[in-house]
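Proteins fold reproducibly. Take a tokenised chain:

. . .
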Amino acid sequence: MNKDNQVLTQRREKADALAALGVNLYGNSFKPANSVQELLPRGDSLQPEQAEPGHSRYSIAGRVLSLRKFGKAAFCHLADASGRLQIYLQRDTLGEEQYNVFKKWDIGDIVGVAGTLFKTKTGELSLMASTITMISKSLRPLPEKWHGLTDVETRYRQRYVDLIVTPESRDTFRKRVEIIRLIRQYMNDHGFMEVETPMMQPVPGGATAKPFKTHHNALDMDLFLRIAPELYLKRLLVGGFERVFEINRNFRNEGLSTRHNPEFTMLEFYQAYATYDDLMDLTEEMIASICREVNGTLKISYQGTPVDLTPPWRRLTMEQALVEIAGIDPAVLADEARVFALAQEKGIKLEPQAGIGKAKTELFELLVEEQLIDPTFITSYPTEVSPLARRNEADPTVTDRFELFITGREIANAFSELNDPVDQRQRFERQIAERGSDEEVHPVLDEDYIRALEYGMPSAAGEGIGIDRLVMLLADAPSIRDVILFPHLKPEARGAAKDRDAAGAEG
């Protein structure tokens, strides 16, 4: 029998022995009266080796994270959602029967303990156990630590274990919850109404991406998990709601990376009678205020790189960025043939129907994006790559659109909305006609959305902010998988799950 199987066998033997003693291995009657966080301040006034005056009785429940046994006495650490506390277990206090039950505890067990508070001679607040209760027997050991690439993957695959043993992981997800709460609060405070729009759509729209496809049997029709809520939110502008937002999942049938997950969380919002300039101001203020709230400063570090979120943030057109950051001669950008030649020189492959706007965008993504460390708004995206954005009145070849980049990553995308149904239909038709082999462009025009525009949509601006990437930034997380509780992974290799974590921390 290998070591892993031996450890699992020993655990099951302990469980059987407890059951033979009449212990309910998975009880449901213990109700803790206190949390660890509630008890910790009570130790502030105690001296080493001093018991709390009055000997008040407390009860807590949590997971055993450490065990130190010394024959007739033992120490363990118990952790609940609020913190961890040392427990002192003594045979003379518990009695022979309960102490024999305790001796079959393992690290990872979930237990209930009642007793009185005191400080040890080393000054650590502890609970002197007078009664103990088994709540859930752990049949698998916890790992002592995570290390190496394989175990990093295991952290994502077995997030439940990661959360038990990695306080930093728990802190990241608490921060994520707080960031989303603050976003909601900001949007509500600025008059936006939270709504819900369909997750399954007959025509995927609002972005260029390959959708997930399913089939509805009763309706006998194909449906697509949404790639964006945009077209439905703008239908609500038509209906008379002037400020709307949604925080929810989008789904894109694309690759996996440190920046991409097939399902991800977006904030998307629309404001009538506003322009993309208004949304730049709003975005700058909102993200800065959230950063200040969760981190206490606007000067943060991301993976060792300093980032200053102090407003005002830099604003550049795409052409300015190509000149100032990529170092491209303005004369080259003014010459279509030279732009295509430069793209080819840089190894960029373009569809035969691609125009100069697409070529410039690809050059920007290759040469500029990763250099945008401090927050930078890039504006004036080519009309060719912005089918839903309003043309700039002074230069119709570009749109009133911006993308926000921080640490070389796109955080937000926004534009003044196109509300001309004739222009919108023409752009959709052109996009479909030039689709070629691009599966990210759906071959069906959304006639209902055009019909909605024909009723009249007010001038408006809209924006999408990637929640996962924002959390990565503010929580200093290197991968999107670190901020998604259950990220998508390749199927586990056959046999890889056979107790590779069994050689954990045994008491």
In short: The domain at 3-136 is CATH 2.40.50.140 (OB fold (Dihydrolipoamide Acetyltransferase, E2P)). The chain has a mean pLDDT of 93.
